Amino acid sequence: MQFLTSLVLFRTRHWVVLYFTAALLGALIGFFFLYPINEFVYYFEHERYRPDAANVIRYVTGELMNSLGGKTPMKTTFYAFVGACLGCITALLYTVMHRRWLQIQQLTHELDKDLEALIKQGENPHLEFKSSLRWDIVENRVNRALEGVVIKTLAGFMNGQGGTLLIGVSDEGEILGLKKDYQTLKKPGRDGYEQLIMTMIASNMGADICQFVRVVYHDLEGLDICRLIVLPSTRPVFIQQGNNPKLYLRTGGGTRELNVQEAMDYMKARWHK
Fold this sequence. Notes:
The protein is an alpha+beta fold and about 270 residues long. The protein contains eight helices and nine strands.
């Protein structure tokens, strides 16, 4: 419970700081930029008998000084409020557009990589192989625990810098395919497989997290390989295990669970910017 409370406070503080800063800057712009422009336009519309530049500057400066002196509080409040709203809207648009741009850049970079060359590299901090999603090739049966391993790997990538998970490839780089996994589905094939993956992600990490995973299929040696391109998440990704949310991180060639203190420290460094 204490950890969840700390998480909520952490995320709330991050957004409060962001939008407070945007609102403050917007209010200043509203007062020192929008307000003078409006007075400038007003002058030319209603006081055309004094069109020279000196009178314009004198008029606008006088109105601005009156506001600073508290003589026109309604005007001051109005333009500060408008500026603050515009600042918050700008911050929101920038956050969304910047996030999309980063996702597109990483997705393009990953898709440019040749799959066979990628497999030859072997597993590394940004690349993981899984023989299957749910079919246990050792026990020759469906093993739901394998799904949990995949979910942890995805969460570790999202909480880090992203990465690629190849399903249907052994740890040694042998092409195994997805035939056995397909046979366990109500809707065998690529579509059913992708639906299962997205359902697993939504159920274990939240529906909003699905946007950080791209599913691509490849045909190698006549066998299907599922390539999951995982983008860095814009928020901490937890896996709910009972009443305890777990934070996993990709470190080296594996994925490990962070303890409470490690998780708090990492979240501050990773997302509190």
